[in-house]
Amino acid sequence: MSDTFRVTLYMKDGSGYSCVSVEAKAEKRAREKAIQLITGGDMNKLALYGHCHVAIEKPYVCSVVRL
Amino acid sequence: MSAWLVSEKHVLAVANEYVCRVELGGHRRTDSGDYTMIMSVAKVLWSANVKSVNTLYDKTHRRGRINMRNLDLFAGYRDGALLKLVDCLDYQSCEYDGWAGSKAKAMLNQLEETLTHNVCREGHDYDVCREGHDYNNADWGI
């Protein structure tokens, strides 16, 4: 088992779901990159993910896999 | 990016803190004169927010009437949480030309400066310490 983490985020939008999956050596870094990617840096969307590490509400799903 | 209209509760919370901390220098009173000032500030802030959303989405929303009964004087927001409300209102209001030089932006800047000074200790990097525990655990909008 390596120390690489894969974080996957889904975001519901008008046409379905957007999905990003990011791998990084540190879980925190992977989360940050994934959140940045899926929100495009929009603070209003970022706020939805503000507590991703604690809980994420439907229809948002956040999965973390240690590779 | 995106923008939305903040709630009346949100704008009143920010207006109240602006009047208390900036206009009155931290000395809170609760007489009718204060309410007039809070109402006046709230109108300026909310109008800018409406203008921003209308500009971004090509809409014709009008600012709602402000009911001072929705001002919670005893909400007890911590400085970090208030800072986040200010940041949010700034973010929702910045979509029109002239925002940078507007009265609303100047008000938010003054309040932001006061709150940041309270949250950060001297010598700390403001960009880092302003977003501490209270900020990160607070709501973006109320």
Strand-helix topology:
The complex is a heterodimer of chains A (67) and B (142).
Chain A: E1 5-13, E2 16-24, H1 27-39, H2 43-46, E3 61-66
Antiparallel strand pairs in A: 1-2, 1-3
Chain B: H1 8-23, H2 32-57, H3 79-93, H4 103-119, H5 126-129, H6 133-136
Helix pairs in contact in B: 1-2, 1-3, 1-4, 2-3, 2-4, 3-4
Q: Summed up, what is this model?
A:
The complex is a heterodimer of chains A (67) and B (142). Chain A is 25% helix and 36% strand.
- Spatial separation of the terminal alpha carbons of chain A: 6 Å
Strand content of chain B: under 5%
Determine the mean pLDDT of chain B. 89
**Tally of separate helices of chain A:** 2
Notes on the structure:
The complex is a heterodimer of chains A (67) and B (142). Chain A has helices spanning 27-39, 43-46; strands at residues 5-13, 16-24, 61-66. Chain A has 67 residues and is an alpha+beta fold. A 3-stranded antiparallel sheet of chain A has the order 2-1-3. In chain A, a hairpin with a 2-residue loop joins strand 1 (5-13) and strand 2. The termini of chain A are close together. Chain B is mainly alpha-helical and 142 residues long. Chain B has helices spanning 8-23, 32-57, 79-93, 103-119, 126-129, 133-136. The relative contact order of chain B is 0.20. The model of chain B has no long low-confidence stretch (mean pLDDT 89). The interface between A and B is small, with 8 and 11 residues.
Provide tags for this entry.
heterodimer; A: 67 residues; alpha+beta; three-stranded antiparallel beta sheet; 2 helices; 25% helix; B: 142 residues; mainly alpha; 0% strand; globular
